[in-house]
Structures are given as C-alpha cells and as structure tokens.
Design brief:
105 residues, mainly alpha, 4 helices
Length: 105
C-alpha cells in the first residue's frame, strides 16, 4: 500500500508542476486551484507513504518521479527542447529510482 500511495503522490507532484506552469504565476484561477490541490495532495499522500517507507527511499523516489514526469510533460505539452544531456539526466534519475526501489525489496 505505501508504494501505491507514493505513486499517487508522485502523480500529484507532476500535476502540481504542470498546473503551476499553466497558472502563469498563480494569476489564472483554475490552474492555480489545481496547483494548490496537486501540491496538497502530493504532500498528504507522501506523508502517508512515509509512515511505512524509509525517508531515504520514499522522498527521493517522489521527487525523482516528479522530475521525470515534468520533463516528459514539458516536452509533450509545452514543446520544451530536449537534448542528449536532458535525456541522460532523465535516464540517470530513472536508474536511481530503480535502485532505491530495489533497496527496499
């Protein structure tokens, strides 16, 4: 169950980041509300997951999944550029997430 909570906390983190970009500095109402709900949801779900998961595994995975998700959605939704260094960074984050998850198994 804590891994499911962590997954949904990570989804909320990505929603938070994308909505924050779309809110244009919290000046657009609907994206601003989604930003706040996403941030609160992510923190609440993360805190529930950390009741069971070690901090050194749960928090880095939450931030790593959030980073990878925002990079991918930045590319797909906002047309942000992607190059070899950015792809390498995402791959390294994914490797770190896999290693951290494996360390808890």
């Amino acid at each position: 169950m804590p891994w499911v909570l962590l997954f949904f906390a990570s989804v909320c983190e990505v929603i938070f980041a994308v909505a924050m970009k779309q809110s244009q500095g919290l000046t657009k109402l609907i994206p601003s509300i989604i930003t706040l709900v996403g941030a609160a949801g992510g923190i609440i779900l993360l805190s529930l997951a950390l009741k069971t998961l070690p901090l050194g595994i749960g928090y880095p995975i939450w931030t790593g999944v959030g980073m990878v998700g925002t990079v991918v959605l930045g590319l797909l939704i906002f047309g942000e550029p992607i190059g070899a260094l950015k792809v390498s960074g995402v791959v390294l984050i994914l490797i770190g997430i896999i290693l951290l998850h494996s360390a808890d198994s």
